[in-house]
Design goal:
The protein is mainly α and 97 residues long. It has six helices and no strands.
Length: 97
């Protein structure tokens, strides 16, 4: 179910809410799938990143923790790409010559 929800539009608050809820499921496979699906949504929502980081602190299953970490990494990367910070770094790198 969680992986199917990850294929929905990023504009679907219901899908995002369901994935966030699934992060608290008893089944580690559901939690892992939910984390992966959230990481695939893109958009780099600070709220989603914060929720994932909170879940990471509490997660005891290493496979789920890895999926959460990868999701955060993916979301942070998409947030940086969308903010133009990559271009700022590239411009600054040329100034060192």
């Amino acid at each position: 179910m969680a992986s199917a929800l990850g294929n929905l539009s990023t504009d679907s608050p219901d899908a995002i809410a369901a994935l966030i809820e699934a992060l608290g499921d008893e089944d580690s496979d559901v939690r892992r799938s939910a984390a992966s699906a959230l990481g695939n949504l893109g958009g780099g929502s600070a709220e989603i990143i914060d929720i994932l980081l909170e879940k990471l602190d509490d997660e005891e299953n290493s496979g789920v923790a890895d999926a959460i970490f990868e999701a955060v990494y993916s979301l942070v990367g998409s947030a940086e790409a969308g903010s133009g910070s990559e271009g700022a770094r590239s411009e600054g790198a040329g100034d060192e010559e």
